[in-house]
What we know:
Elements (H helix, E strand, L loop, with lengths): L1 H8 L2 H19 L2 H12 L5 H33 L1 H17 L1 H6 L10 H7 L4 H37 L1 H33 L1
Amino acid sequence: MEFLDHLLGLDIEHLIAKYGYWAIVINTFIEGETIQIIAGWAAHEGWLSYWLVVLSGFAGTLAGDQLYYWIGRRWGRPLMHRFPRLEAGCQPAFDFLRRYDNWFILGFRFVYGVRNVAPFACGAAGISVARYTLLNIVAAAVWAIAFATAGYFFGKAIGGLIEEYGLQIVLPTVIGVVVLGVVAARLRARKRMQKVVEID
Length: 200
């Protein structure tokens, strides 16, 4: 109830300060570009520590993708045989992995449309634990810094709007713009991925 009271009352500064880092870890464990950008903005406003935002995003995304990798490594092939739709969903990731190998592991977080299945596919494809983990650590650090920094500098750009229109108007607008941008990027990436599959 306390969380809802703060949310409905838009006591955002207190809400983010109290729940922000855990929210970052949990959301980035699942996916999290949107929350990492918003958290970077909150760091610019002084509600969160920039480096703790980076660390939280790094921890969440690394843990999530390591877990999905281990699931793929241990149960990937049986699961794909049992669920053909899962195998079809992983196929673009297998295609990218076959073509670009290490570069794909370093960059799949930035490739919308394969992010959710890429770690699972890496495990199912038999990528070694040491190689995947090392590349995943590097990629997670770059990802966490890049999106937190984008949100931080985006916060600078809208600082004047907050002063003029107030947080209650600007915050929902910012969240809406970020979410729409992420959705649009994913739709474009899905179309590009479909073209790659058709070419193959």
